[in-house]
Amino acid sequence: MSGTGRKQGFPPPAAYAIIPAMNLVVFVVAAVVLYLLTSAALTVRLAVGESSLRVNRGSVLALGFGAVILHALVLYPELMTGHGLNMGFFNAASLVALLMVALLLLTALRQPVENLGIPVLPIAAATLALGFWNPGDHEDITSTNWQLDLHILFSVLAYSLFALAAVQALLLNVQDRHLRNRRPGGFIRALPPLEVMERLLFQMIATGFTLLSAALLTGMVFLEDIFAQHLVHKTVLSIISWIIFGVLLWGRWKFGWRGRTAIRWTLSGFAFLILAYFGSKFVLELILHRNA
């Protein structure tokens, strides 16, 4: 990351020995290019379908993994500062995007979810670029311990997985509309069947719900007061999101909820979750210039 984004007096992280400061720009540009190339390749692959021009799936995923590695190398020294874990707005957004792509690519090794990368990969490229050239105010957690690190890990993984579920729900909504209007042609024909798309959506939601439950539980156990004034909005909104996703999973099990019902509940739950963290951080850090 650029030197302008780091507070004065911070000792340089050891990770900078891996990437000389002058080469960071090269790594950032390379990661952004690989993200965009992977997204473009996925778009072409989806468009040509079963044509003889079909882009090799393994090669596309390899490009994506290359971008993830470069992204991680650039982001790591900004997260692991000399004063603790830096989870400012842009760092947090970049970390969530990085984990979204990593989870997506790992899942794509066994499940047909790679098309989610078409919108997700450019988002990851944008968060990486914004975090590098416009880091904004930093929020530094100065006294990290394994309990707090565990809480943060569960939280970020939950955000990342639910973000993927939200993208899956939007794609499922487009697919559902085309099928209802009896227009299954175009790129819709190249997608997995609707039942497979729904199954993948609920697999993401179930895993994300487990991670969010673990995040709330570790927060209640390890944080001194999870309902303290500076945390109460995050806690309440996260609990509302947890309830929404819990009801959705119960409705799926009990009544077989699917289709538009599943899409609406998924997007509603994600909206509360994104407000719980990034909404408050955006207002406090970027508008009011205070730590979240």
How are the elements arranged and paired?
Layout: H1 24-48, H2 57-79, E1 80-81, E2 84-86, H3 89-108, H4 117-133, E3 140-141, H5 146-180, H6 194-222, H7 232-255, H8 259-287
Antiparallel strand pairs: 1-2, 2-3
Helix pairs in contact: 1-2, 1-4, 2-3, 3-4, 3-5, 5-6, 5-8, 6-7, 7-8
Describe the structure.
It is a single chain. The longest helix has 35 residues, at 146-180. It is globular and about 55 Å long. The chain has 8 helices and 3 strands; from the N terminus they run ααββααβαααα. α2 runs antiparallel to α3 and α5 (146-180) packs across α8 (259-287). It has 2 domains: 1-141; 145-292, no CATH class. Helix content is 69%, strand content 2%.
Key terms:
single chain; 292 residues; mainly alpha; 2 domains; three-stranded antiparallel beta sheet; 8 helices; globular; disordered N terminus
Number of strands: 3
Order of helices and strands: HHEEHHEHHHH
Uncertain runs = 1-17
What is the total domain count? 2
**Over all CA atoms, what is the radius of gyration?**
20 Å
β-strand amount = under 5%
Structural class: mainly alpha
Mind describing the biggest β-sheet?
Answer: 3 strands, antiparallel
Please work out how many helical segments DSSP would assign. Answer: 8
Instruction: Give the overall pLDDT as a whole number.
Output: 83
